[in-house]
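Entry for the shared binder. Reason: the reviewer on the internal report wants the predicted structure included alongside the sequence.
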Amino acid sequence: MRVGVGRYVRGGMTPVSAKHPFQSLKRVLPWILPYWPVMLFGLVCMLITTYLGQQPPRIIQHIIDDVLAPGGGVYQGVRAVLLLGGVYLGGMLFNMLRTYWLHVAGQQVIHTLRVRLYGHFQQLPLTYYDNRQTGDLMSRMTGDVEQIESMMVHGLDVLVMGLLGMGLAWYYIHVYAPLISWLVLIPVPILLIAIYFFSGTVRKIYRIVRDRVGDLHAKLQDNISGIRVIKAFSREADELDRVTADSEQVRAMSVRGVRMWSTFGPLMGLIGHVGTLTALIVGIHLVASGEIKAGAVMAIFLYTGNFYQPIGQLFQFFDSIQRSLAAGERILEVLDTIPEIQDPEAPATLAAVTGRVELREVSFSYASGERVLHEISVMAEPGQRIALVGRSGAGKTSFINLIPRFYDPLEGAVLVDGVDVRALRQAELRRHIALVLQETFLFNGTVAENLRYGRLDAGDEELAAAARIANAHEFIETLPDGYATEIGERGVKLSGGQRQRLAIARAVLADPRILILDEATSSVDSESELLIHQALERLMAGRTTFIIAHRLSTIRGADVILVLENGRIVERGPHRDLIKTRGIYAHMYEQQFWLDDLAEEEEAAAGRRTDEEPVPIPEI
């Protein structure tokens, strides 16, 4: 199967033809050009290093033919040795400069590419992440990017020094013995043809390896994030088997590439050795016939080795190129993804936002094509509370995701203060919206750093005031370092209720005009739920609020309750009116209260039990 650079466009991925394998490298050039002075200095050092590296055979030839010959003297010998030592020292110094500055340039390019890649990740809509694994995307930002640096530094090094070294070596051979210089060229076409066919095959293997590494990283990321679930269900052995299988695929494909490299490389070296031996035999014949001296044969022998050695290095260069091409394809697949949600060229502005939100005949579908919302029309006046209820999959989350423009509607329009959200800059729109979600996400850092995510310039007193509104200040003060306490990845050191109250405090600091609450009180204990309700009441005051709630008792005070069924609004109105209609909402409400009463009875019965044996689970 031909593997090529994938260019993503709206509606899918269009593969770029693999007939242009160096396209990804050409695309990297704009990131390299800004650092051309450093690259040029490194290149100059490289040229000097290569030139000095080709001088020792000539000096050795002089020592053998002139210094050691009758008539030679100690002075000539000392001068030749000092010259040889100077060449070695100069080569070492320029090689140090070459290595340092090329790596400096390489790190600059990698920094630019990594930042560019991450910046593009942030521009991509949520639809891009719906079907992609986090670990694979991280692999593109780390391993794939570093592979480009390896090619740029070591690949350029080998290419320039190899070609120049071959040219100089061949020139000196030609000066000593033109016949031998033409003989050493005979194997070159064979080697170049072999490299060409080898490169086409191994590039596909390396692309598969990079993809498999991405899959492995994704699996490891999932498992490390879900380690508590793995331990809770004693699935360590099963997950180890899965990781082992993924790692085995990486190993198998890598070994396949190494097998080709380890077989092909020595074969190329053997051809070079045959050429060197041929040159030596011809050189001995020329010495015997008196055409050249013994020192010249030694120089020819050394230069022949210098001529063929870069060919082996060029093979390694092509190997590096293939790895980099595979990595470059994966990087460009991201950079070529056109964000479906983009800011307009001439964005409108919101002067004084009141918080009026309107969904006008909105229909929506995900990439799969199945519509999840059908002709939704809703008007939320400033300060109103709009609650959304319905069975799982009814379209509630899709509804609220359209307001901050995480997705765009298929038909219709979403308006804030009468302005279509597609006419606004995304940053400006979202500056007036805050979300408190069911799964609170906190960053690995301190309490204060997480709270300031709501407003970066907030002072310590403002943090404390927001925390008091969210009923969080008291528990924060009990933490080891107060607001400076490290809370761990995703806030793992805090309880669910504590994390939720920090999320509310973060939203308080943002001071939005529009508030979205998605199951904000689920999965917490009764005491935490009461504190969270109190905090949310303070937060919602004067703000247009959209509420998704599993517990219907928490939304009885909403101005309007929307009942969604299969992506359509089937009922709407305040709690009292919906109860009177005896429709879907009334049925859901009564059913939930019945379940709550049943749970209370079961808890009371459990409290009266005298034995401690677990309740048996009936067989199904």
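Summary line for the report: The mean pLDDT is 80.
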